[in-house]
Amino acid sequence: MTSLSAINNKPISGASAMRVDMKFEVVVIPVADVDRSKAFYIKLGWRLDADFPFDNGFRVVQFTPTGSGCSVQFGTKMTTAAPGSAQGLYLIVSDIEAARKELIARGVEVSEAFHTSKPGAQFRPESNGRVSGAAPDHRSYSSFATFNDPDGNTWLFQEITTRLPGRGLSNLDVSTLTELLRETEQHHGEYEPTAPKHHWYGWYAAYIAARQDGKASEEAARDAKLHIEGAH
User: Fold this and answer.
1) How far from 145 is each of 26, 131, 142, 172, 214, CA to CA, in Å?
2) How much is the pTM?
3) Which of 18, 60, 210, 211 is the most exposed place for a label (fewest CB within 10 A)?
4) Could you report the per-residue pLDDT of 217-227, keeping only the tens digit for each?
5) In whole angstroms, what is the distance from residue 6 CA to residue 21 CA?
6) Spatial contact of 119 and 187, defined as CB atoms under 8 Å apart
7) How far is it, in rounded angstroms, from Cα 100 to Cα 157?
8) Cα–chain-centroid distance for residue 125?
């Protein structure tokens, strides 16, 4: 039963008000032939996490894309959705052309890179709103490419080089972590001349934790400052 506090969007006091992480971890996609799909996702180079068959005919296969914290599952007796009905599954990449070339080298058919002239055209292959080639200057969030699995489930590459303010950072690859550390160093350098004596790694830890929690860089810097000065 829904509580009155929840309906009114009022904070709930006591232990139940503690924040609980809810990590989106698995997407189930519908397929017609499990072994055919398994072979395809192996060809992509994704990590095979599980292939568990059970006596009652239930079977679950799980793959995780390279560098991803979210996995994909398919199998038998998992979903009543029609095979191929999963559309627009996002795969975020830092270099759209490098991502395309990798899959093409693995024998996967991938669309050319494109950007859009109309909102939502990335989801509509028949649309005249797709413009050939990556977005000018590789503008973040604006370049796409697509590929399908054997059933027609559609995966959508999106190139992101700089995230919008306040967006969380997770599953950091080397280039993203390098940029985050550079950003952290810059803000710490601005803070240090007026800061009390402290260990730099405490400030870094608080800043990075705040950025991973989705806070903008200015908010993260304030959190790190409060962390250091609150400890004195």
Assistant:
1) 22, 11, 10, 22, 27
2) 0.70
3) 18
4) 888 899 999 99
5) 18
6) no
7) 9
8) 23
